[in-house]
Amino acid sequence: MGTTQLDSVQEPKYWHLRTVLSEALDSEFSVGEILPNERDLAARFGVARATLRQALEQLELEGRLQRRRGVGTTVAPPRVGVAVGGEQHAWPGAAGDAWQAVDCVQEIPAAAVAAALETGADEPVHTVRRSRMSGGQLVATELLHIPAASVPGLTAIDAPSGAARARAVLRELHHLDLEGQDRAVELGSARADDARELDRLPGSPVLVVTTRFTAQGRTAALSVATYRADTCRLTFGDSAGVEIHHDPAQRAS
Amino acid sequence: MGTTQLDSVQEPKYWHLRTVLSEALDSEFSVGEILPNERDLAARFGVARATLRQALEQLELEGRLQRRRGVGTTVAPPRVGVAVGGEQHAWPGAAGDAWQAVDCVQEIPAAAVAAALETGADEPVHTVRRSRMSGGQLVATELLHIPAASVPGLTAIDAPSGAARARAVLRELHHLDLEGQDRAVELGSARADDARELDRLPGSPVLVVTTRFTAQGRTAALSVATYRADTCRLTFGDSAGVEIHHDPAQRAS
Known about the structure:
2 copies of one chain form a homodimer. Chain A is α+β, with helices and mostly antiparallel strands. The first copy, chain A, is built from 6 helices and 10 strands, in the order αααββββαββαβαβββ.
């Protein structure tokens, strides 16, 4: 399209600065290095602080920069590939699952979750909280909603609470024959509690992966997982994922 | 975790406002409705304009609000599920492909693309530009990089340029036996040209889906697709995708 369309829309100033900054990151800075403060950067590039901040936000979205409380803005390492969907269907908690059970509560879920589970509005479900590490860092948190009907053999006595309870719920779930699963990925913003665990500010961009597990012709479990969008690249399919660094500035067409 | 952790981190003001605004959207506004201007909203909620803007940005990230040039801020319809990966492997341009070929050029790709394709740094590749519609709207643009070695039977005479050339390249590609494909999804920011096509501002958050197609033991094609993050939910797997609206505010734990 670039060859036929008129380039009539002027490039915003922050976008131009973003490109210049991106090149400076490549040539002058190394991974982990702390950037000069905003005032110095704005002076160096001859722009207003607001323009600088917009450009820094772009580069953060693209995973080039990280802003950390108490540290400042640093040059980010390449994103880590985190395997999300394989070809194989498997229950949460099955062998090889990358998630660790943290807690389990019985609760009335949010209306949207109840609708997806096709449970009644006042029907409590087991909500397992899990977390996922990669490279020594917490990269995702998950709420896994399991209707009581999916774990009919579960007794209160098995394990009353906490991670042990979560594992008991998952063991029960594995008695069902998993028929299929589907997933959706979308952009979200981190809830306050997820943000705290993921070491982000509330509202930081996150990738929300919703997975529905079906058994006996109905939804047997619903997982809502929140991945750090700054450090994670979600991979699907045969191998460990595509190793390409997405740089919007580079393009030869 | 919410039951055991100390809530010692204070909720930022914009995050609280985001929750209040979210509730107001549910109760007072309907899809497509234009919000009052920023000054009026800030006055109504008794906050500074900067705080209001941060809260609006949150809601935009979550797909609740849309900001459109010349229109203002409107209440967004639910995101559209766009199928990205099925269980079946298929070449780009195979039957049922949702993408439309737009253009094709032969060019030296960016260094990262050349590395992923394992072509030499100065080796030109065919770059097919495609676009994807959903519900009458352009939801994604794609650059599909195909090394000359993947389409050895292609002649310059087949179709010299444009969409016809793109289709000729894809037809040639189909002569190879597709062995596998893997995908990665990550957060990106829209390049100026993609932004223009997608009717977004440069730097708007986008979901970047990179797909590597393998044949004869090597990378035969590399697709980099840019989806609107505000209106799209990418779906994977068996069915048309999970119909859950992600609302970070609602949670009963």
